[in-house]
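During the no-cost extension, the postdoctoral fellow (Dr. R.K.) reprocessed legacy sequence entries with the updated structure-token encoder. One reprocessed record is reproduced below for audit purposes.
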Amino acid sequence: MQNSNKHVPFTEEMKKDYTILVPNMLPIQFGLILQIMKNYGYNMELLTTDGPAIVDQGLKNVHNDTCYPALLVIGQLMDAIESGKYDTHKIALIMSQTGGGCRASNYIHLLRKALERNGYDYIPVISLNFSGLEENPGFKLTPQMLLQIAYGVLIGDLIMMIYNQCRPYEVVPGSAKKAVGICMRNVASRFTDNRLITYSEVRRLYQFVLDVFGKLRLDKSKPKKKVGIVGEIYVKFSPLGNNHLEEFLLSEGCEPVLPGLLDFCLYCLYNAVIDHDLYGRSLKSASLNRFLYQFVLKKQDDMIRIIEKHGQFRAPSHFDEVRRLSQQIISPGVKMGEGWLLPAEMVELIHEGVHNIVCTQPFGCLPNHIAGKGMVRKIREHYPQANIVSVDYDPSASKINQENRIKLMLSSAEA
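Re-encoded structure tokens follow.
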């Protein structure tokens, strides 16, 4: 009898000529991370496919009660496999595993089940996790690699944030997108030829990004309504997951504002500290994660100072201050899924002057409904100016209904 849901390891030999397919979530940040991984011998391709075919593939291979991000990620990977574009004996797939109570820990098993059902059970699926859940001899992340990836995330976040601050005001249509291309090419070139980028180079790249966008012709004579986007990490960032929410907000004359991926990374690091302080878990793990948290926090502080010194763009809030402010809304012990990060990012946006917020959540995502939608009333008690709407995303949700809910929120929004 065939072994159900078997784990096919990604080996050292496969690393030489296999392409690893990566489901898309953050085109800018992931684009830089994949360039970094190429320096370490990994040929990784970011999938940019879109449209109803992805949802159809997901519904075909995953039960429709499954978390919407899982349905989309598995649908995008299966669509790529069946597209005829790839030699299925020379590809591997990668998927993150959180290791927590969130259903995301089980996505990888759903993907393997879909592969087996369709006759592709020989394709390796790499688990990207930091919890020791699975190992693959041909895919390892060293401390050196993680440091380089952290630099990529920092620069990618900066490009994304400044891009969003420019494109609603650009005088020449498409100029902000061209600036993104210039920044991506120049930043990516620093991560080639097996070079280790230094932090002094990272600081210079911050300045380069700000200077590139600083040359754009912007018309800010008529302020746009700023609308923050928070929620479950995939649906918040992925255009496929949120029905191109950023583009919709732009079409409504708004400026979309997204907290960066770094916030989620800092949240994950600090949760190990919380585990020790509240639940008595490993002191060693807490000490290491506290050190890493402070290390990354200092890098974020550097970026904020450089943005403020440049003077043309709005800097994000200091995450440690946001974390402390969020404790008046929710306990730091609430850390399932996005947990306390969700209300923390809403508080962050409000303190930045962004009072209009869309909270994106997969239908049936219990952590998001409790820590996101469930905290809206309490946030409004502390911040009466908060104008928040929660929007569900799932295969049966009507895009028109989603947009109408957002339009209703915008009708009472202030610039």
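The domain at 223-260+316-411 is CATH 3.40.50 (Rossmann fold). The mean pLDDT is 91. The remaining legacy entries will be reprocessed before the final report is submitted.
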